[in-house]
Design goal:
The complex is a heterodimer of chains A (about 100) and B (about 1000). Helices cover about 45% and strands about 20% of the residues of chain A. Chain A has about 100 residues and is of the alpha/beta class. Chain A has a four-stranded mixed β-sheet with strand order 1-2-3-4. In chain B, the strands form eight sheets. A six-stranded mixed β-sheet of chain B has the order 14-18-19-17-16-15. Chain B is elongated. Helices cover about 40% and strands about 25% of the residues of chain B. By secondary structure, chain B is an alpha+beta fold. The chains are: A alpha/beta (about 100), B alpha+beta (about 1000). Chains A and B meet through helix 1, helix 2 and helix 3 of A and helix 6, helix 8, helix 9 and strand 2 of B.
Chain lengths: ~100, ~1000
């Protein structure tokens, strides 16, 4: 996973696949980042590199969204592939994820 | 006009309250029945009615708030908004505020409604966060899709899918899975319940639930195979159901155009949820929400109370009529039938009137839905409340008083009983805990059961907690059954929660719940299985207006004691003697001390002087405690009609009401709780005393004293130790002969001189001699004389603390409170000395031997200490007093004594041990030791001999003691003359036995 601070934004770029095999280190890293949540205002997850997403990946994104809502920080998911976009549609998550 | 307006306003307030009463349950069920058109309409109408009338009265704030609520509901009605948790919350808050405004209607215009108003407004304008808008999106299903599917004969399914359990754990990805779903049919709508996840911390562990609606040609069993999920997660919806849930659709025209909103964040999330609809819970909610029928009118409760009273009077009147017309009825033809008719109609009338006061228990159960809903949010638990038997009816007054205890129980279940979801999951239970509240009729009573499937009570934990808090003893709890252990939580000061939360523990405990239930004449029972749940069962009478009682008598007066309070009835007298502990009367009942209250004394009744020892004790239960109420007579058990107390005597704590008996006389209803409070019973103290007595057991009996209690004039009470009494004779006053100044009685072939207390002691003199007198013949005196008294009250066993300074004078040893009365202890020796100076002075003059001898007295009982001190003073001895064995031992180290006079039973170091120490000591071993005892048992003699006691004396035998002391100290040999033959066998002279 890569992440960078762009101004007040925290940009998270997960590696492919976003799934069971990779999820735990990612979750740990994000938890560490959020422990110091004062460093950023907006959170953006860039999924352009992700083509495989499993249930745990969905859980992680929902967790991120809820965490941001708790902290009052806008949350956005960008760079979805058409199939992932469709998945979010079916899950009715697009709205939470700020996907137009 | 103002008069009329205020009446109108009052009726508006009342009506609005009823609307609000209905509104709350309706709103609560709205959350789960979003598409119930009738429900939505009813809510709309309720708010609308309040709005309309408030405008008429110029109640601006009520108008404004209800208007906003109405607007919101009308949007729901038009399907522009779908109710969800956020909306229901806002509406509930609005309803709460409306209630507050209406409760204080005159100042409502000054109250602040901004918060509630804004919340509702936000929902209207769609700015209330994601939820509202997403709900609105729920409406985006294209009606044509539904219509199309119907035409093709598709089935409609609502599917609950768990992303971990159903997808991940089966090695699939959501993308594949949804592709498959889309291949099965037409995907209509969906939503995901993301409330499960709180944030990053629990993101991965939670199983997200996704609900979707699909139309397909597959039948249900094929769907189960295709989707590879448990059957109960798929619910089939018939076209009719879709038609039913769709609001505002002309029934015949386009039923399928109805919208099926499924965006419901508050769907049941347990994997076991019942897929089949309608669910039982839904059916229940329907009954909560059933609207009031129109064939009722509103009647004020005061009027019903009056009616109830009048009906009661009618019954009493009927009873009197029947009684007095018995003889007439036989002579007048037709009269009998008439009377019977009146009798029947009266009973019927009373029953019907009683029923007007009955209300369905649902009236209070309904509010628990709200409480549980709020609590489950607060506690982060998932709780389902199931109400059963809401139609069961109760007397209004019972119902009102039941509300608080029940609330407490329900809160307890939710707070302490139901585990957090994580814990439940670990225990393999459904995530959602269930609290079940059931009301039903059981044999003339109503039974209310509160059960939960939570963690249950742990008996071992309860026991250790009770011990830790000093509420029970470890050795007692060890023998408790589980059920007894559960009952520990009813002890005052017991709280099961580790910490007191603001949710349930508020300082009031289960003891208050129990007290309140018992006040209603009910009972409470608790059962629990560790890890499985708890069941609490309340049993209550249908009404408080008629209660079974025991009628008791005190002189001419009669009283009614409710039978629920009576545990048992004990006839006093014989073995059941009244005793005194710490100045209070008690009854030793099966080894426990039962505090006693005499009804006549409590009421300051004129008929006092009644012999309490001969009456009855009603053993009454007040919470955890029991006490005995002494009454003179028991009359009957009777069902009585309770009448409220008049305001003049409302503050009398010992009465709870009044009733009119069959003969027309009034009987007061006694209030057990009030009486216990009024008599200021020290239950805790007695409990301790009881325990101490049980512990000390037999050994202690020797330290309590047997007293003969008697009276000479009026109330003045006297006592002497029974050891001093040889016998009591009942004599005719006229049998007493006078010889000069002296009264004599022929007694066993010889004559006995009689003396009167008042002739020598500073006490009252009786007005006149009754027909019979009693003569107490003492023993342990050299020249016996009979003491004349007018009344022998009782022989009792009691511990006494003798006060020697309060009352002083000839013949008075001191005073103490015995059985609640100040009692004078008679000193027979000084009395006799005053009455017969010749014989007794001589005695005194003839014994110089003891003067100046140094004696140490060891005696722990104050009463005996006082008497012995007096004797030693008379013997002109120099003496010190030690209050126990250790103190005596210390005194012996410091001073030189000629003799030790010691009690046997003493704390610390007893008389034998003390003697053994003395015999073992180099310096003291020759000290003469005289042991004193109240009971000379053989084993004591043996023990005394082994310990090295020189002589044994019966306590209080002054002559004998003096002789012994003289013999040992003055070198006088031989036995002292026996004081009385009756006593001789008790006396043992060990020196004689030893041959020394």
């Amino acid at each position: 996973m890569k992440y960078e601070f762009a101004g007040t934004d925290l940009l998270i770029v997960p590696d492919n696949p976003l799934a069971a095999a990779t999820i735990n280190p990612l979750h740990k890293e994000l938890t560490r980042l959020f422990a110091d949540a004062g460093r950023f205002q907006n959170v953006v997850v860039d999924l352009s590199g992700v083509s495989i997403l499993d249930s745990l990946g969905v859980n992680l994104l929902v967790g991120l969204y809820k965490e941001c809502r708790k902290l009052n920080k806008p949350f956005r998911v960008t760079g979805c592939s058409p199939s992932i976009r469709r998945l979010f549609d079916l899950y009715k998550l697009t709205e939470y994820f700020g996907i137009e | 006009m103002p008069q009329m307006e205020s009446e109108l306003l009052l009726s508006f307030v009342q009506e609005s309250r009823e609307h609000l009463d209905q509104l709350e349950p309706d709103l609560l069920s709205l959350e789960s029945n979003k598409s119930d058109a009738e429900l939505v309409n009813r809510i709309f109408r309720a708010v609308h009615s309040i709005k309309g009338a408030s405008g008429f009265f110029g109640l601006r704030k009520i108008l404004q708030l209800s208007h906003t609520m109405e607007n919101l509901m009308s949007r729901v009605r038009e399907n522009l908004l779908v109710p969800d948790k956020i909306m229901v919350d806002a509406l509930l808050a609005g309803a709460d505020k409306l209630r507050a405004l209406i409760d204080d209607v005159h100042r409502s215009n000054e109250m602040n409604i901004e918060a509630e108003s804004n919340r509702l407004q936000a929902l209207l304008t769609g700015k209330a966060g994601v939820s509202a808008t997403s709900s609105a999106k729920g409406l985006s299903i294209d009606p044509s899709l539904i219509e199309h599917a119907r035409k093709k004969g598709h089935f409609f399914y609502k599917v609950h899918l768990f992303t971990h359990k159903d997808i991940k754990d089966k090695g699939k990805t959501p993308l594949d899975y949804f592709k498959k779903i889309e291949s099965l049919g037409q995907f209509l709508d969906s939503y995901t319940d993301i409330t499960e996840i709180d944030g990053m911390a629990d993101a991965l562990a939670k199983d997200l639930m996704c609900v979707f609606l699909i139309s397909t040609v597959l039948e249900k069993d094929l769907m189960v195979i295709a989707l590879d999920i448990p059957e109960e997660q798929i619910a089939q919806l018939t076209p009719e159901q879709i038609a039913n849930v769709g609001p505002l659709v002309p029934p015949a025209e386009k039923p399928r155009a109805a919208v099926l909103p499924v965006a419901a964040p508050e769907q049941p999330t347990t994997p076991e949820f019942a897929g089949a609809e309608p669910e039982p819970a839904a059916a229940l909610q329907k009954s909560t929400g059933r609207s009031r029928a129109n064939d009722t009118i509103r009647v004020s409760v005061a009027l019903l109370d009056d009616l109830m009273n009048i009906a009661g009077e009618m019954v009493l009147g009927r009873n009197q009529l029947l009684r007095t017309s018995e003889s007439i009825a036989r002579n007048v033809p037709g009269m009998h039938g008439l009377l019977q008719n009146i009798s029947l109609v009266t009973s019927d009338l009373q029953e019907k009137v009683m029923r007007t006061r009955l209300q369905p228990v649902g009236a209070i159960l309904g509010k628990f839905t709200r409480i549980i809903r709020d609590m489950s949010h607060q506690l982060g638990k998932k709780i389902d409340l199931k109400l059963l038997g809401e139609e069961v009816e109760f007397d209004k007054s019972v119902l009102e008083m039941l509300s608080d205890p029940l609330t407490h129980l329900i809160r307890n279940c939710a707070d302490h009983g139901i585990e957090p979801p994580a814990e439940r999951e670990k225990a393999g239970k459904p995530l959602t805990g269930t609290i079940r509240l059931t009301a039903r009729h059981v044999g003339g009573q109503v039974q209310i059961e509160v059960t939960d499937d939570g963690r249950g009570l742990n008996p071992a934990q309860l026991k250790s907690k009770a011990v830790e808090k000093g509420l029970a003893k470890a050795q007692d709890t060890a023998q408790m059954t589980d059920r007894q252990a559960f009952n520990l939580i009813f002890l005052p000061g017991f709280s099961t929660a580790e910490k007191i939360t603001d949710v349930s523990g508020r300082g009031v405990g289960m003891d208050v719940v129990r007290t309140n239930i018992e006040k209603l004449g009910g009972s409470i029972e608790l059962d629990s299985q560790l890890g499985r749940g708890t069941r609490i069962c309340l049993r209550l009478p249908l009404t408080l207006a008629i209660i079974p009682t025991m009628i008791v008598g005190l002189g001419e007066r009669r009283f009614a004691m409710p039978q629920v309070n009576i545990e048992e009835i004990v006839r006093l007298g014989g073995k059941n003697r009244i005793e005194a502990v710490r100045g209070a009367s008690v009854l030793r009942l099966r080894g426990k001390l039962l505090p006693l209250v005499a009804l006549d004394e409590l009421l300051g009744s004129q008929e006092t002087g009644a012999d309490h020892g001969r009456g009855f004790a009603l053993v009454l239960k007040v919470g955890e405690n029991r006490f005995g109420l002494i009454v003179q007579t028991l009359l009957d058990s009777e069902e009585i009609v309770v009448k409220p107390l008049s305001s003049y005597i409302k503050n009398c704590r010992c009465y709870s009401g009044a009733t009119i008996m069959g003969d027309g006389k009034v009987a007061m209803i006694l209030d057990a709780v009030g009486i216990a409070g009024l008599a200021d019973l020290q239950f805790a103290e007695l409990e301790k005393e009881s325990a101490a007595l049980a512990l000390k057991g037999q050994a202690d009996l020797s330290e309590t004293q047997s007293l003969l209690v008697f009276r000479n004039a009026g109330d003045e009470t006297f006592a002497i130790n029974l050891v001093m009494v040889a016998r009591i004779e009942k004599v005719r006053t006229r049998d007493i002969e006078r010889i000069g100044q002296k009264e004599m009685l022929k007694y066993r072939d010889s004559s006995l001189r009689l003396i009167r207390l008042h002739d020598y002691m500073p006490v009252s003199r009786p007005d006149a001699d009754p027909e019979f007198l009693y003569v107490i013949v003492p023993r342990l005196v050299k020249h016996p004389m009979g003491i004349v008294v007018t009344q022998v009250v009782d022989a009792i066993q009691s511990t006494i603390s003798l006060d020697e300074t309060n009352l002083m004078g000839v013949g008075i040893l001191g005073s103490a409170v015995v059985a609640g009365k100040l009692t004078i202890f008679v000193d027979i020796y000084s009395l006799f000395e005053a009455a017969d100076p010749e014989n007794y002075r001589e005695e005194k003059a003839a014994q110089p031997n003891l003067a100046g001898k140094r004696i140490l007295l060891a005696e722990d009982t104050a009463f005996f200490r006082a008497i012995m001190t007096q004797y030693l003073k008379e013997f002109n001895c120099v003496f010190d007093v030690a209050a126990d064995g250790l103190e005596a031992w210390e005194a012996l180290q410091r001073h030189r004594y000629d003799l030790l006079l010691t009690d046997i039973e003493m704390p610390g170091l007893n008389g034998f041990e003390l003697t053994q120490k003395i015999r073992a000591s180099e310096t003291l071993r020759h000290l003469p030791v005289v042991a004193l005892t109240a009971l000379a048992a053989d084993r004591y003699v043996q023990q005394g001999r082994e310990a090295g006691v020189d002589s044994y004396e019966i306590k209080l035998d002054k002559e004998r003691l003096k002789a012994t002391l003289e013999r040992i100290l003055g070198g006088v040999r031989g036995l002292p003359p026996p004081a009385s033959t009756a006593n001789a066998n008790h006396l043992v002279n060990l020196e004689e036995v030893r041959g020394g």
